[in-house]
Structures are given as structure tokens and as C-alpha cells.
From TrEMBL:
Protein name according to UniProt: Glutamine--fructose-6-phosphate aminotransferase [isomerizing]
Active-site residues per Swiss-Prot or TrEMBL entry: C2, K600
PROSITE patterns per the UniProt record, alphabetical: GATASE_TYPE_2, SIS
One annotated GO biological process: UDP-N-acetylglucosamine metabolic process
Listed InterPro entries: GATase_2_dom, GFAT, GFAT_N, GlmS/AgaS_SIS, GlmS/FrlB_SIS, Ntn_hydrolases_N, SIS_dom, SIS_dom_sf
Amino acid sequence: MCGIVGAVAQRNIVPVLIEGLRRLEYRGYDSCGVAVLANGEPRRARSVARVADLDDQVRDTRLAGATGIAHTRWATHGAPVTDNAHPIFSRDTLAIVHNGIIENYETLGEVLRGKGYEFVSQTDTEVIAHLIHSLYRGDLFAAVREAVQQLHGAYAIAVLHKDQPHTVVGARQGSPLVVGLGDGENFLASDALALAGSTDRFIFLEEGDVCELKLDGVRIADRDGQPAQRDVRQVAAYGGAVELGPYRHFMQKEIFEQPRAISDTIPQADGFDPSLFGEAAPKVFGKIDSLLILACGTSYYSGLTAKYWLESIAKIPTQVEIASEYRYRDSVPNPNALVVVISQSGETADTLAALKHAQSLGHQHTLSVCNVGTSAMVRQTEFTFLTHAGREIGVASTKAFTTQLVALFVLALTLAKVRGHLSAAQESNYLKQLRHLPAALNSVLALEPQIIAWSEEFSRKENALFLGRGLHYPIALEGALKLKEISYIHAEAYPAGELKHGPLALVTEAMPVVTVAPNDALLEKLKSNIQEVRARGGQLYVFADSDTRIVNAEGLHVIRMPEHYGLLSPILHVVPLQLLAYHTACARGTDVDKPRNLAKSVTVE
Ligand code: M6R
């Protein structure tokens, strides 16, 4: 999604800004741009193509300057055309880049039009540019502070003004912004990753902060306009570009990285102790009486899977909600509940807002399950369990999902132990199963050639149904999401028992029905559902555990899963669904790692 980079230095900063945009590319965008102060005038280059095209433009036009801002845009207000690409100018004196959405842009726009400002884009951002311009009296920091008081919505901005060389002013509310500290130069970005190679010292700005970058330092004011001291954190974890290696796409690489990612996420300790989640967790976990899980997309499906584990192993009531729904409905808060937010990025606007909403309702205990240790979500929760998936580049989440499942399984076992539902023998047995998971996953990954054969047929379809039961219903949902987001085939998932209540009407020879069939307590029920599809001429594609006795027959295609894995089976069964989506998308020739209209990190509502 949108990305910001800014810098003040005593050298040409354009290459640093372009490199920063390159590092943010994987998040998804549809246009990009850069502006610098060149001989005291703001000059810019913008492109509706890739950052590489922008780079060509800046080289061709010799755009150079020591003070600059840059942006990747994911369109919200106004189409992805050059006029709407950032940086946006106000009267050729001020340039701004903006992530987020300004909700009162129409009202502000009318006032500014009344003052003679002319709008040349369809963006909400242009309102901020003119607003700051209208408030500028020789001090950009003061003008930005005054302007943000009038903004409603979520934003992170970076601004420069022709009369203030070596100055970039930033502000954030609801969207992340981080300051990077250099020697005689300073930086700003929406993600520390953008500044890798330039610095490893960061200040993560807090909600409402406004900052001013100069060559010799950075000053910050809090939401009340008071000078604020923020911790400087050393973050060495942001290495160079991630290599694709022998893989065709990052998604494929990330699917195959799952054994390693899972192994890194499984705690080293010999048991499930609440201290795995934070120092104060042993005290708090004993007191909580329920869980409220909030997440979006794939992370929501990991929460749905966890509900089965939490209620069956830990016997703790668990509610799972889509973050964007929870925040806008009236709910009954329970101060004794543990609110769990799940997110790969830790920056998803809907999940962050849901967390804030839960806290405002009086929920005091919060836990984040997250893949990014420096993210806003981790910083805003009482407890944390970090997944160690490593950087996930593909928009379609794969290793982030399976590592979330591991984290949530560990949470279920920890709560079971605290609540007296886990014997020492069970604990050591589950630990053994977890430790064996990476090896079991490798056997599942070895099914790839068989899945490629199926994907050829799938690539010619326009619809697909996914079925699962119990613990594997969320896995069917995840399989359908994977297929639709990267292959653009319309896919829906149902609990298999629901088939006869409606979706069976869709079943014809043209409709592939993908079924996850573990050898669990619901197997016989699932077999009946399979027969319901066969009787109507449907084509079934079943991933069946080897001991299920589901075999190939007319209209019934079976791939055998290597072994049944009990309660951890969802972690294995989702992998062939990831591979099926991946190879189907490849066969259809889509942009697998950057599917149309989607972004990796969804930082707007
Ligand atoms: O970073 P998050 O886990 O909070 O992201 C949530 C969703 O946007 C994300 O899982 C999305 O659904 C993926 N593209 C699915 O593959």
C-alpha cells in the first residue's frame, strides 16, 4: 500500500529516496513519485508505472537535490493517473506525500476553494497541501502542527517547502511513520525497511506526533504541541533485498520456506509457559476468562482455526471477529477477556483501529501475534508472541499464516496448562508433535508435481467451491481466498454440512469442488457430503489423509496427504491449497506476487 520516504542531507538524496521506494514496492502500489528542492524550487517526477520507470525519469531529467520526499501510491481518492500521484504541490511552493485517508476533505476543500486555492487532482491529499500552505507564516513545523488539528481520519505525511531548505516535516495519526537518524543527515519513512542501508537507528513516532528533520537533528512535538522525547531504537534486522533464489515467484519461495519458518517460531523451551508471551503474562493468563480475537483476511482465518483449539484444549470461550466489523458495532466488553490481535504486518489499519476500540471499551489485556517486532501493533499491546516467518513479499500470505497457527496453538496449550487442562504427558506429546511439524511439512511440499497436474484443469475454470469441516473449515476458507486473490477465479468456501442448504445448487460438471479430508472425527460425515456432490455430477478434488480410504474414482480425484496429524492437521492441509492456488495462477499468467488491486500491507481503512 502507500509508502513514504523522506530525507534531508548534504548530498543528492534522490538515489536514497528511489531505493527506499524500491524496498516498499512489494507492498503494492499503482503510481509513484519523488520531489526535491532543486536550486530552491520544488521539482518532481511522477509515474503511473513501476519505480524503475520513475528511476529512468529522474536520470533522464537529472533530478537532484539534498532535501526530498517520495511516495508509492495505492489509489483511494482519484484514479491512478499522474495528476493524482504524489508528491502533490500547493502553488509550486510546497510538496507533500500522504498515506491514509482524510475524511473531512470535502469540507476543508470548500473552505480552501473559498480562499482561492485551485485543485488539480482528485485526491484528499491536495487538501492537506493547500491547508498547510494557507497556514504557513515562515515556519513549516508550526504550519503542519496547526493543519493537523483540522484533519479527521488517518494519515502519515511528509512535507517540504521551498523557503525551508534542509527541512522535512512529518506527522502521523493512525498510519505509521518512523524517523531514521543519520550523521549530518536524517530520514523519514512509513516503514523502517525503506531506510535499510541508510541507518539502523530509528524513532517510531507516536500517534499525534509532528516531527521536523534538519541536518543536525530532529525535533518532535506530541499531539498537544509539547516537545516530546522518544526512544531511539537500534534495528539491525533489516537486511538487503530478499533474493528469489531458484523460485519463480516469492509466493512459491515462501510456501517452501514454511518448514524453516515454523521451526523458528516453535519456542525453544521445554514446556508451555505464559512467560513466552511477556513478563506479566503468568499473572494475567490465570485471571482471564475468555478470548476476543480480532484480525483481517488470512489472519482472521488463523483466528478462526485457533477458536477450535482454544475451546477444545484450553476450554476457554473464544470469539473471533473481523476487525473492520468489530470496530463499528456495539459490543459488550469484558475486562477479563484477553484481546488477541493477529497480523502479519502489524500495521493493518482495520486491526489497529479494532484494538484501539477494544481498549477504549475497557479491555485491559491485549496480546499481539505478529511477524514484525517493530510494528505499531506490537508496540500497542501488553503481550506479544512474534512469529518468525521472515519477510513475506508475496501479497498472498502463506508462511505468515502457518506460523500464526503455530503461535496460536502454543497459546492454546499455554492457557490449557494454566487452567489445569494439560497433563505433563500431554504437554510433552504436543511438544513432540510440534517439533516434528517441519519434517511433516516437507513431505506435503513433495506433493507439488501432483498439484501442478491438477492446476492445469483449474486454470480453465471460473468458479470453485471449497469444503471443510470443523477445524478444517477455516482452512477451506483460506484455500478459497488464496485461489481468488491470485488466480482471479471466483471461489467460495463452505462447511461441508452446509452444502445441502444452498450451494449444492451450483454443483455441475463445470464446478470443481475442493475438499480437505483429514482422518478426524468428522470424516464419515464428510464422506457423505462428498457423495452428495458426486451424485450431482460434480468434480471433486480431495486432499485426503492416507488412511481415509477415499480413493480415485469417476469424478473423484484424490491426492494423498502423507500422514494424519491430529489437531495440528490444519497446518499441513493448508499447504496443498496454497500450492494449488499458486500453480493455477501461474497457469493463468497472473502477476502472482502483486495481484491486481491488492496491497501487501493494508494501511487504510
Ligand atoms: O498484515 P495482516 O496479517 O494484518 O493482513 C491482513 C490481510 O490484509 C491479509 O491477510 C490478506 O488477506 C492477505 N492478502 C491474504 O493472503
